[in-house]
Amino acid sequence: MSTENIRKVAIIGAGLMGHGIAQVFAQAGYQVSMQSRREKSVQQAFERIEANLQTLVESGLVEEAPSQILARIEGTTNMNEAAENADFVVEAVPEVLSVKKEVFKNLDKICPEHTILASNTSGLSITEIASATNRPEKVVGTHFWNPPHLVQAVEIVRGLKTSDNTVKITQELLVKVGKKPVIISKDIFGQVGIRILYAMLREAISLLEKDVASVEDIDVVVREALGTRLSVMGLFEMADLSGLD
């Protein structure tokens, strides 16, 4: 399978992350099937997407009418219905390993053989999730950051058996929908972004415990100093600017 063969994308889970991921693919022109266990959750997801799109239109960031984008999304409470003809699936259910493994076990039975199964996990093992399937070479991590319809970076995470072709197709697909994918070559807890974030949080807590600064002032430094610089320059770029030679 190649990226050109991907026609339908299924999103399993329509909550905090799932609805935004569905929006990303629908905005890019894909037919999307969005599944959640409860009808109320599906309806709330559509309401969130519509509100997001309206804001983007009012800001001049999206030209297409929200109604046209929403028309490309089908909502359902039935996983079989959502995934049976999907070419690419993104799982966005709660961050519980047993729950995710059960979802992948079911998806493996439902989906065609060519379908790539992606998990939006922010830290769980892709290798372990893939072990619930008979296609570990087609299982990959796609960690979207919240809110997924605005944040460009997506971490593509390899499991031990994830194939090069699966990574390649996933990377190309994410570029097509306007994202900036990065490849995480080792299946480690927290991937890259979460580990860096937690390192900063540990230091912030240490500074607070030592009475160096208040919670509010530490947050001001992170938001108004580091945040401003980090939005345009990475850590190594900042180090290079300071002088590495």
| Biggest sheet statistics | 8 strands, mixed
> Going across the major beta sheet, what is the strand order?
3-2-1-4-5-6-7-8
Based on CA inertia axes, which overall geometry fits? globular
| Straight-line distance between termini | 46 Å
CATH architecture of the largest domain: 3-Layer(aba) Sandwich
CATH superfamily of the largest domain: NAD(P)-binding Rossmann-like Domain
Number of helices: 10
Q: Please count the beta strands (DSSP E, at least 2 residues each).
A: 8
Strand content: 15-25%
Mean pLDDT: 95
Structural class: alpha/beta
What does it look like?
With 245 residues, this protein is an alpha/beta fold. The protein has 2 domains: 3-184, NAD(P)-binding Rossmann-like Domain (Rossmann fold); 193-242, N-(1-d-carboxylethyl)-l-norvaline Dehydrogenase, domain 2, CATH 1.10.1040. Helices cover 46% and strands 16% of the residues. The protein has 10 helices and 8 strands. An 8-stranded mixed sheet has the order 3-2-1-4-5-6-7-8, with helices on both faces. Helix 1 (18-27) links the parallel strand 1 (8-12) and strand 2. Helix 1 (18-27) crosses helix 2. The radius of gyration is 19 Å and the shape is globular. The termini are far apart.
Tell me the layout of helices and strands.
Elements: E1 8-12, H1 18-27, E2 31-35, H2 39-58, H3 66-70, E3 73-76, H4 79-83, E4 88-91, H5 97-110, E5 116-119, H6 126-130, E6 139-144, E7 153-158, H7 164-176, E8 180-184, H8 193-209, H9 215-230, H10 235-242
Parallel strand pairs: 1-2, 1-4, 2-3, 4-5, 5-6, 7-8
Antiparallel strand pairs: 6-7
